[in-house]
Amino acid sequence: MSRRRTLSRGKKAALLVGAAALAGGGAVVMTGTSQASVACDGLATALGNNARFIAEQRANPDAQSEARIANREAVIEEIKRKQAASGCEVGAGGGEAVAQPPAEPDPPSEADPPAEADPPAEAGPPDQAAPPPGGGEQVCAGSTVTLSGEGGAPAASSNEFPIGTQLRVTNLDNNKSVTVAVTSVSGSCVLLNDAAFEEVREPGKFLIRQARIERVG
After folding, report:
1. Could you tell me which of 81, 84, 113, 214 has the fewest CB atoms within 10 Å of its CB?
2. Other beta carbons less than 10 A from residue 168's beta carbon
3. CA angle centred on 96, ends 91 and 97, rounded to 5°
């Protein structure tokens, strides 16, 4: 009788250890899945931005449209390679519209109190203070920032600012900033090329959800 009770307790202990191992393994899998999802979201957004740009060029062609389209098609192929390497669905985001900044609020009525002269400062992460503004005009409020997939020295592309415009992009999640010139046209307010994005990105992420964009030149 005593020996049977001892074996029974041993079996129970083994079952408890196995259950704990399964729970721990599940936590690891969930964490990895979450990180992969963030990376895939960013790549899908980048692919959607470039696909939209190509569609706009085809709808309103000019003398340079074919060259721009060929360039963006090469960028899309590079993004698809990154999707495959990251375990994402290849081609995801290619048919999606690019997220636009939120609509401007309706103008205040005469009964509303006057707006404050200066908007409140943007809040950074709880454990980090947001860096001071770069002295430029803040633009593209509410926009996310991702990469275009283009190589070369740090640069940006935009559908709002002319080539040569200097933009300062700050990732409010890690307080890193980069100042770049707009060198080409894209389908979104700001896209950073690979070199510029590397300067402000968080490891494993292809999308900056909290960004401050300033026109500095």
Report:
1. 113
2. 19
3. 145
What is the domain-level CATH number for residue 182? 2.40.40.10
Q: Tell me the pLDDT of the chain (217 aa) as tens digits.
A: 444 454 455 555 444 444 443 334 444 344 455 666 777 888 888 888 888 888 988 999 887 788 788 878 888 888 888 888 888 888 887 764 444 444 455 555 444 445 554 544 444 444 444 455 556 899 998 889 988 888 999 999 998 999 999 999 999 999 999 999 999 988 888 999 999 999 999 998 889 999 999 999 8
Q: Is 1 a member of any domain? A: no
pTM: 0.51
Cβ of 173: how many Cβ atoms within 10 Å?
17
How do 191-192 and 145-147 pair as beta strands? Answer: parallel
Cα 169 from Cα 200, distance rounded (Å):
8
Domain of residue 149 covers 137-215
Q: Is 201 a member of any domain?
A: yes
For the CA atoms of 152, 158, 164, 167, what is the dihedral angle to 10 degrees? -90
Task: Find out whether 200 and 171 touch, Cβ atoms under 8 Å.
Answer: yes
Backbone dihedral region of 204: left (phi > 0), alpha (psi from -120 to 50 degrees) or beta? left
Same structural domain, 81 and 146: no
